Amino acid sequence: MPDLLPCPFCGSRSAEIAFAGAKRFACCRYCSAGMPPRETEAEAVQMWNTRTDLARAQALAALEKARLGFLNLIDYGGLDQARHGETLAIAGELDQAIAAMKGGGK
């Protein structure tokens, strides 16, 4: 049995390698979290064990998308004046979170 890290979602150590046709993928038996199928078991193990990098990249992309959405609201006048400051504050918080994830913030 390959050495799989605990599930990043539930913390369970019940991860296993499963089959999807001829491909293999790692998944958690407890919460059903899983990774996309890979050609080999070794690739599936590697993807599962490095998924925090993938999760971090996806979270960073989501933060950047949210920040852009808030800035577009400001730029295109989709807000009344009362909400303008609040939206700028949220965009600033997103900037801080993005910087922290990139290693340049607190």
Structure explained in plain terms:
The protein starts with 14 loop residues before the first strand and ends in a 5-residue tail after the last helix. The protein has 3 helices and 2 strands. It is elongated, with a radius of gyration of 19 Å. With about 110 residues, the chain is mainly alpha-helical. A two-stranded antiparallel ribbon has the order 1-2. The mean pLDDT is about 80. Helices cover about 50% and strands about 10% of the residues. The longest helix has 25 residues, at about 50-75. It has 2 domains: about 1-50, no CATH class; about 60-100.
Give descriptors for this structure.
single chain, 106 residues, mainly alpha, two-stranded antiparallel ribbon, 3 helices, 52% helix, 11% strand, elongated
